[in-house]
Specification:
Blueprint (H helix, E strand, L loop, with lengths): L2 H13 L6 H13 L1 H22 L14 E2 L6 H8 L10 E4 L6 E4 L5 E4 L4 E6 L4 E13 L8 E4 L3 E5 L3 E6 L3 E8 L1 E6 L6 E5 L2 E6 L6 E4 L1 H7 L6 E8 H9 L5 E4 L8 E7 L3 H11 L2 E5 L3 E6 L6
Parallel strand pairs: 6-7, 16-19
Antiparallel strand pairs: 1-12, 2-5, 3-4, 4-6, 5-6, 6-9, 7-8, 8-11, 9-10, 10-13, 11-12, 13-14, 15-17, 18-19
């Protein structure tokens, strides 16, 4: 990191600390006195932060007649490292806090001290750190849905590795897999950005989603409220299918159950399915398939095998 980037990072961190107590104000005054460049960096950081907050709370209608609303901003004259710090990324890995890891089939609802609630999906791993200045979550793997209590003094920030999300008071999910990160908003407004996005930020509103792939500076975005709600059916212990393939459905059931579904006949993989099923009942799902697709089902304690019925005489 260059000297300029180091100054910009420190300035961004100071800009996010407000209001300051007497001890913090003395420390800021000392930092400003160290170098004449510090005061200018702090002013730029404060201006960029104000721009970000304005974007977060704006309630404009759809832009350019599109069916979904988003806004990207780039703080003029602010480098990538500084913009990242303003968004709450810099130093995130240094935070420690409550560690939560869910096992296969476990879905946990976790009330947080600030009044927010995290609903954590099966096979997830995250850390939560709350203090007087910010609320931070590191999602190492899996998925969680956050219902965020409003607190304008303490932004709620989720770090999912290649992508970050920031909210003040809203509800949204973050899903992290080996292939990438998806952020979906069910209520309010969320700002999101790629870690290497040089400060570019995308604003998502209710019904919007953003999908980040590794190496991409900006996400693929769209609007699909119904699809988002279906994808979050796990919160109620359900799997909702609406034109999903059988192979996708099997992968979803297997995330939650020790009794694994096995597709013996690959020709069935692309069969399209519709329905609402209990997450913890793969056997019931298989019995439904036996009727709707006229397939053969064989079960043991460890697996449920699905295959086409053999035609007599073949």
């Amino acid at each position: 990191m260059s000297v300029r980037e180091s100054i910009d990072e420190a300035a961004a961190n100071w800009a996010m600390r407000h209001p300051l107590d007497a001890h913090q104000q003395a420390a800021l005054d000392a930092w400003l006195a160290q170098d004449r460049l510090h005061a200018g960096a702090l002013l730029r950081a404060q201006a960029a932060l104000a721009l970000a907050e304005e974007a977060l709370v704006a309630d404009a209608g759809p832009e350019h007649g599109s069916h979904w609303t988003r806004r990207r901003w780039m703080a003029a004259g602010v480098g990538g490292a500084m913009a990242a710090a303003i968004a709450g990324m810099v130093g995130f890995s240094r935070w420690t806090g409550e560690h939560i890891a869910t096992e296969r089939g476990e879905i946990r609802r976790l009330p947080l001290e600030d009044g927010s609630v995290a609903t954590i999906d099966s096979g997830s791993d995250l850390r939560v750190a709350l203090d007087e200045e910010s609320r931070r979550v590191t999602l190492a793997r899996g998925q969680a849905w956050f219902q965020v209590a409003k607190d304008r003094r303490r932004p709620f920030i989720v770090d999912a590795g290649i992508a970050q999300a920031r909210a003040i008071g809203t509800a949204f999910s973050v899903s992290r897999t080996e292939n990438g990160v998806q952020i979906a908003v069910t209520e309010g407004i969320v700002a999101t950005w790629a870690r290497n996005g040089a400060g570019a930020m995308t604003i998502l509103r209710a019904g919007d989603f953003a999908t980040f792939e590794r190496g991409a500076l900006v996400p693929a975005t769209g609007n699909s409220p119904q699809a988002i709600e279906r994808s979050l059916a796990w919160r109620a212990g359900e799997i909702a299918l609406e034109g999903d393939t059988l192979s996708d459905a099997i992968a979803r059931f297997n995330r939650y159950n020790k009794q694994q579904l096995v597709l013996s006949d690959p020709s069935l993989a692309n069969e399209k399915l519709v329905g609402l099923f209990r997450i913890d009942n793969p056997a019931g799902f298989a019995r439904t398939l036996a009727i709707s697709l006229d397939i053969s089902v064989s079960m043991t304690a460890e697996e449920i095998r699905l295959s086409r019925k053999k035609i007599a005489g073949s």
